[in-house]
Amino acid sequence: MNNVSQNLAQAPAASYPNLSRALALYGVEAKQLAAQYPRIVTIIDSTWGSVDCLHYLDSLLFSERPGRQGFPTDVLDEIVFIKNIFEFSHPQFAVSRNDPISKNKIEEIRGHIQEIVSGVESVPEIASFSDMHAKLKGRVLNEKKPQHEIDSHQTLRNNVSMMENNAYPKGAKRELLGQYFLESNLLSDSTLADALNLQSKLRTRHLLGEILIADHSITEMQLNWALSRQRGIPIVDVSNLEISAEAVRLIPLKIAHAKHAMPITIFDNRIVVAVANPFDSEVQRYFSFLSGYRTILVYSSYEQIETALSRYTESKRGVVNHTELNGTKKDHRLAGNGAASATELVASKKRINESNGIEKSDRHDQALNQTEDDDADEQTDDFSTAINESPLLKKIDENDETVIGLINKTINDAIRLGASDIHFEAFPRTRNSQIRFRKDGKLEVSATYPINFHPAVVSRIKIMASLDISEKRKAQDGKITFGYANKKLDLRVSSIPTSNALEVVTVRILGAGKPLPLSKISMHPELLEKFKLQINKPHGLILVCGPTGSGKTTTLHSVLRELNSSDKKIWTAEDPVEIVQKNISQVQVLPKIGWTFAKALRSFLRADPDVIMVGEIRDSETAKVAVEASMTGHLVLSTLHTNSAAETLMRMMDLDVPAFNLADATQAILSQRLARRVCTECAERFEFSAEELEQLVNEYTLNTMEKSLSKQERQKMITRWQTEFGENSCIYGRRGLGCAVCHGTGYNGRMGIHELLVMSTEMRRLISCGASSADIFKLAVKEGMKTLRQDAIEKVLQGTTDLAEIRMVCI
């Protein structure tokens, strides 16, 4: 049992029967939370088993309080533990039924059922179902009767209000799920009895609905329907219900099709949306952020939703049906075979207004002017006017709970998914702002939210980073310390103003991880041995180069990990300090107060160092001091933003470092890139054809040979590849097909691609003579340097990445 379980195991249980009973299945109770926050435990216990409980647990974890969420670490761990148990016990609330985890769980249950059917386990039978059914009939059920499909807006609003205000009075009991299946003739008495019997025999606790689906007794749609009835969620015949044009404007048809949802109406700051799974909290939150309204999910079948979507789409192709004008319904048939033009729609509206004496309404103007091509209402020339007039785009405060929850959930999701950067972006003449994650070097859209939320989101992040929220005209940089999984992570924040008085915020996640061993940075064994020889020299300059985000700092910390020993004094100057290591003195530079890399480096020289790491050589002063330090008996490590090892030497000379000093001081230059790995879960192996191998030979020798290879030399290279990487004279590659693990990309994780230039006597002489980068590159290749492209192609032949990826990484 882990520490969280041990803490929970000693908690008093008498006052919290529902929560205690649920935790008892796992041999734990609520200790620290109950002792320090009894009111919170009371709320969790009273709402246990409903979606309100999940929302409340989310609010505890994602709300903004001083010092992270304001809970001590042990209490926060217990809340996370309780939420995990709730989601495991109530999957209909936690995740969508289309989620791979849910499907895996169903398969797990089917496996257990097969074991029971095969006679592996033997458990006493439960009481006869006839007795249980008699008890069910005799129970005092909730006075709310089973409801039928709703086909009017007024009835829908009444039911929604009942569901929100007083769906289940205090002390009332819900009808059991099996009762609904029996009354609806979805199951027979014997089938339900068999399911209950299986439920008692399974090794772990599973819900009745899960067992019935696993046993193919009911479908997911039937379960959702029964759960909706049981919990008082309105069941709507959306195929025969009038659809509000404004609701569709807020949740466009193309998004509705993708989510299998049908927006119905808007009232009392709520938008009502029909879905086949009204327990999907992620969809509910998504629609809330998209629309700016509180979203109420009601139940309708897949068939009815598809019918409604098709009917509404067809109506927009020539007929605007039942447009609501001040509560009056009118049918407007427009001329033309195709979609009605905006001019026709405006003229039609004008005629109606003149004939009926109806005042103009901005909201109705927007609905009438909508055409087939602007379903999403993503862009419009007059959006700046519409944004000021629309009642939906009201000003949102940075202390709004929705804004706080959005930011905290976004950061949590980014860390959980392994993203390196988060971009909160807003663009002119667009309806929504977007959030993008950079994962494995590629940007992916994670979520969108209404653009009127964006100023509040920016201000909230600025407050978290201790920035000036009133300054919107210039860029600002800050830092956030964020608690995640009992760790404190540093987030680097950059706020930059763009056109139209908008701001873009970028949050970089600085992982507080441990340095990787050198053997784990994907360097070729032969190259690794050469590199180790250079870093173990007592003095000299070793540079790692590459673009931003290519893993240079990670490689340098791997080198420090290799060199770190009790007989060496190591100093580092970094901005910021991303990876912390024991027995190493690490310094954060602060250019704003004049504490620069150069000044830190000069201070290190007076502090008896053996090894010095400078985060980056940015200016002439830092470059000169680094070279001087390497020539006075110190090993100096640093990085530069250059494209190749040969160009790094030219860059140092551009920073006014004398060529003869640079030649004497430099020991080695490592150029590095990061390429995405092919996902091991969905990888497909394929054999390279003869034509593909010929193309690989051309790319492998590009810019490294003064003349083209002969046919014999090309065949010799292919034969070497067959010996080193092939099987039975065949060379295989791998490509990812896309799966749940890699989120459909075909890639999971990244690996290093390297180019190592080691200084020789001839190379030093060439540099001292002021040779060009092209001459240095030719000599390095002649002396055996493997280029970035060559190292990448060999990793393709190993099957760790593919050609498409390396062609993007290595030009």
From TrEMBL:
Keywords: ATP-binding, Nucleotide-binding
Pfam families in alphabetical order: MshEN, T2SSE
Transmembrane regions: none
The keyword Repressor is assigned to this record: no
Keyword Magnesium carried by entry: no
InterPro entries, per database record: AAA+_ATPase, P-loop_NTPase, T2SS/T4SS_dom, T2SS_E_N_sf, T2SS_GspE_N
Segments forming domain Bacterial type II secretion system protein E: 605-619
Family: Belongs to the GSP E family.
Name of the protein in question: Flp pilus assembly complex ATPase component TadA
Species the sequence originates in: Undibacterium amnicola
Lineage, opening ranks: Bacteria, Pseudomonadati, Pseudomonadota, Betaproteobacteria, Burkholderiales
This protein's encoding gene: tadA
